[in-house]
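Why predict the complex rather than its parts? Because the way molecules touch one another can change local conformation, and only a joint prediction can capture that. The input here totals 1194 residues.
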Amino acid sequence: MSKAYLNYAAKRLIQAAVVILLAYVFTFVVVSILPGDPITNVLNNPQNGFTPDEINEIITAQGLDKPIPVQLWTALSGFLTGDLGLSMRTNRPVATLIAEVLPSTLVLASAGLVVALLLAAVIAYGTQFLPKRFGQGLLRGFPSLFLSVPNFVIGLVLIHLFGFQLGIFRVIEPNSFWATLFAAVALGIPISAQIAEVLIANLDHESGQEYAAVARGRGLGQMRLFTKHLLKPSSLPVITVIALTIGELLGGSLITETVFGRTGLGSLVQRSVSSQDLPVLQAVVSLAAVVFVLVNLIADLAYPLLDPRVKLIGPSARRPATADEGFTDLSKAVTP
Amino acid sequence: MATQDRLTAPIQSVKFGAPKPQLLVPLLRTEGLSVSYGPNQVVTDVSFDLNPGKSLALIGESGSGKSTIARAVLRLLPSGGRATGRVEFDGQDVLGLSERRFRPLRGRVIGFVPQDPGNSLNPVRTIGVQAMEAAALLDEPSKAIRKELILETFAQVGLDNPRRVYDSYPHQLSGGMLQRVLIGLAVLPRPMLLVADEPTSALDVTIQKRILDLLSRLQRDLDISLLLITHDLAIAAERADSLVVLKNGLVQEAGRTAAVFSSPKSAYAKKLHADVPALNPDRYARLRDPGFRLLDTGAGKPPKIEVSAVTKRFSVDGKVLTAVDNLSFSVPAGTTHALVGESGSGKTTTIRLLLGLEEPDSGKIVVAGQQLPERSSASLRGVWRHLQLVYQNPFTSLDPTWKVEQLVREPLDRFKIGTPGERVEIVREALANVGLGEHLFSRKPGALSGGQRQRVAIARSLVLKPDVIVLDEPTSALDVSVQADIVEVLLSLQARFGLTYVFVSHDLALVRQLAHTVSVMQRGRIVEHGTVSSIFDNPQQPYTRSLLDSIPSAASGIARLPQPRARRILTKEKIA
Amino acid sequence: MTIASFHSPSRRSAIGRLASLRVQPTIVLSIAIVALMIAWSITPGLFTNHDPINGVPAHKLLAPSAENWFGTDHLGRDLYTRVVYGTSSSVSSALIAVVIGVVAGGLIGLLAGFFGGWVDIVFARMVDVLLAIPKFLLAVIVVTAIGFDTTNAAIATGVSAVGLFARVMRSEVIKTRQATFVESSFLLGGSRWHILWRHVFPNASRSVLPLAVLQFGDSILVIAGLAFLGYGDPPPASDWGLLISIGKDYLKWPWLVYAPAFVTIATVLSVNRISRWLRKTD
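Output of the joint prediction:
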């Protein structure tokens, strides 16, 4: 642990804390200041059947009668102490609502990530072993195709083929093993494309490097060249990409849970959106941001320890690169 | 593996000195070798022989196909490259072999020393791991002994602390050390042939010489044949027994070094010979004379540039680094002053100080009688009216989205010089002065060659009619024949307009051709200064002498050749 | 396979190479598909004789045929016609999203990258926040706040893309700002604004263009996702995502999902292909 690294870690830590706080403020501002004032809309909607007394009670309970900076301060200090407030729809604590559905989403998201990693590895490493003319072009086409398919379509196709046609799982049992597996596949496919694209780009870049030619000049065959030389430098930067796909996993589970009829954070968001239950939305979005920032913080802190190429300069030694960004040469991004 | 034994068996017998009539079978022979990438043929019908223990240089500028030939011999062409013809190794055609049967030859029989040591070792693995790969080619079962052999080889190639090198990652070593490592890895399995692809072009001049000396020594001691790829005729003449001169993938001339060198026959070899600075120190004497007269008569006073006791420090990671230390020099009007030094000598900082892009910690700089104002002060713009810079790399110094005419016109527009009509005239004139035709005016830099781009860059600084132009290695990114053209342009402009140049370079041979006075820099200080003739003919400091020694001199190489014995001509001329 | 292999070696000019790239059949196909989509959005009536809103109940849930290329839906409407009429709002909303992302993100990135210092710090943290919230979730809360319809879904999608464009533009600007030609222009008398607008901006934008095209495809997907969840225009609108959403309740008649999905995928795939091609020819 060099001094430069500790310095970098401290800066990165502070930066992460600032971003989390700002993300909370940002969502608060979006839901409370933007035109339309969804809260009064909900309360005054006769269909919801609130009496004027109840409306006043909710307004007082939520602190909606106070000026917005005060509301923000109350909410923010609550957020920092773990108090996420009360749901407007059910009047139960938001934290409880989230805790109920979180495990299911965690299972789906981690299974989705595993599927994505496996698929990406098969596609990207496969290109190294298939001949140029036969099969390699096909493999290289996969990420592009995967990125062009809406993930709800993937889900519907899987349900149609494996649920209805082949009868491997029943749609009415969304938490069964097979249903969860196919949901994870639907969630993982678009993410695998992002990872595979970066992996393939890195492999192409590394195998075009002079050191690869020199190693072959030392008598190494394709297999040894891949395992001894190309695998590590091309795979290390993927840590960064995986951390970035956490956001996609959380966002994607929203749709996947709807398609497969699972309960989870996604369906909670769905319900909160349709009933305009803003405290829940605010909490879920902030939570997603916290998870994203923390995962990326860990990746950023781990990366310099794993990749000897990285020299630390300034607070952001690593510029994150995603597959959909794809334009910044990743190996350049990590070798200043 | 039976196939492998069959392949290597005859080679081994040659290697261990069997009384084989060596003259009959060259170690490496190419016959009608052609290489193409898709529809583009980059090497056409190249034939040459390289006998055991001898050295042969492939010489050419960029695009000549010299590196492609090296890769074709090693069968390391990038994907899409296709080689036809014959490449015989010890009498056997290897081009037709399957990859599986050829692979045992790589490393074990043919070693490879690459061009750019900085990119030639895997950055995420230690040197030791990669050295073990080379050591695996030895028939030595014990890992401990293999490691000993590696450390021995590292010592042999002049690495001071083999153990530390073994445990290092590539980025922890300097370029010169990495190139020693790579040479060590190449010779470790005791190959019969070493293919060295521009082994020194990425290194400083004094290190260049040491690396070339090392290669020559290993070649002699280990009885290895050397296929040397280089753009530098002087290096080739100094180091190789025979030469093949290439241009656009075609052999222009081939033969014994002494023959090709002393009396080149082909037009291209003649031009190449005339363009190499090291071989033609007085080529531009006529254009340079006015400057010398100014120096002699003292008419150049007062100096256009006066740098007195300038010091500049940077702090890096808490450590203070003195980039420029008590620097003083002056440049009389109408003459060229050269700042010579290797990387880290403070050349670049000096340029930035001269242009006011950095502020000196102490000392002062006077340009055309005016003291340089503070950095980021508005009056710096006024200084740049009289002081311009030509960058080292014309591939990065011109905005790729602009047209030539716009580029040259930009300074006129910015400084609001003349009416729009006059500006068009000035641009035309400047472009004509640097020898660019009107058909190029509407091109973008991407559609120009390196030499043309550098001419545009010169024209750009010329339109302001500055007194002083700082030339930052203006030809080091260019081929030698293009370099000669650019130098010619620069010197004739000086003769015509009485321009004053500050010429920054690591290339002493080039400095000798075009400068009037010289300062030799080392670690931020001027170690020696004086007129060109005093520095080159009578150097006082050991560092200056070592720099001068590192200029490749063909004379020493030719003297090395065994003159009296009748030698078989190693190469066949085959000019398509 | 490019036509380049039929060229003689002498024809190696830049134009020749460009021409050989241009004839890649997949590029031609991609451009044709995108052109067809544009035509569908401008004059849907030219491509079909059916009514997109009023169906013939007797003809409901028919399989694809020569008469109904994509079959008919549960109300007896011709699905092909529905898809064609839905193109306009699907494509134009993606366009709105890209414009918002490029203009707002590009401007933030340009200013942050060029001026550096506290401007950069403030903008960089703002962008970090935008990137920290999952893109789709961000679009969902924005569209919740401003109301459910397709235009708002487009705005929300655009907002969720601002962070990406800002970051790419910023890094491009920083890269360009350090380029030698920028310093050269400075030495030749260029002012800050001159350098920003004439050198940094054009060069940095060059790599944003293919990204914008790529984002166009991505926006189609995000907006389709929002429409699928019911955050776009309600029926009888026929946005692609909405069509698929309706189709999912009739999986026994799978063309109701597959046909609009196929059109969506073909469009996005073509757009992505064009983006890659632009990046290569840059």
